[in-house]
Every structure is written in structure tokens, then in C-alpha cells.
Target: Glutathione-dependent peroxiredoxin
Amino acid sequence: MSIQIGDSIPNIELRVMGAEGPEPVQTADLFAGKKVVLFAVPGAFTPGCSKTHLPGFVVKADEIKAKGVDSIICTAVNDVFVMDAWGKAQNADEIIMLADGIGAFATALGLDKDLTAVQFGTRSQRYAMIVNDGVVELLNVDEKGIDKSSAETILAAL
Model:
């Protein structure tokens, strides 16, 4: 069963790229006392994720933050080096690129997806959520496409 509205985000250690290289970060620290928009993609540098999903949040970042959002976080089951390179390639300076290298976060949320048939292995489902002080207030999971988890949809929900 996946995480639901009203549930708390599980505390998992993940990675972000710091000034000196990869740094561990606890999800509890990213969400505690903050209003956060979190969105997940199946993979960095993949077509839908690179052409539509992440760019939408890059373009709308200021509008989203103007609605009282402290942080925008993008996560994927990719390593920290890939997430960092993808963020730089997409000019995602206002977005925390959170590496879920082994899929522990996606699995803990119950939002993992087996894409072994297309040689991707276990990845994250495509979703977006609004989290307030670690508690899920909105959860939109896309079965196909990017409509439910787009920056525009999340902005309208704020």
C-alpha cells in the first residue's frame, strides 16, 4: 500500500550533491517544519522527465514558492551524480535534486515501480505531493502521462 494523505513521510537517508561532493541527508530534515512540493520521476534524462516534468517545475518555481512553499524537491531512483548533472543541465537551481540511489525512499512510500521489462529495474512512479511539516496533504500519482503531477496542477492545488 502506498503512502496516503495524512501520513507522515518516512525518514530515509538519501543523497544530495554538496559543495564538496555527495552528502547524506535525512528526509526528516528536508520536511520538518516546512511546506514542501515533492515530485518524483521514473528517471533522470528520460524524455518525458526532461522535456516536460522537471522543466515545468523549473519554470514555475517562483510561482510555487510565492504560494508559501519553502522547498521544491525532485527525486528519482538515480545516483547523486546523475541527479546533480541533470539538475545542472535543466537549470534547476531552485530545486533540490534528491538522489534515491537504491530506491529505498520510493519503496518506503509504496510508490516504487518494477520496470525490469524495459531494462530499468525498480524505479519510482511518477507523482507529486504537497507535504506540510512532514505530513502529506496532497498526493497525485500518474498512471500515464504527466497531468496529475505537473507543475501546473500542483500550482493550482496550492
About this structure: The CA atoms of residues 3 and 109 lie 5 Å apart. Residues 47-66 form the longest helix (20 residues). The domain at 13-157 is CATH 3.40.30.10 (Glutaredoxin). The chain has a mean pLDDT of 93.
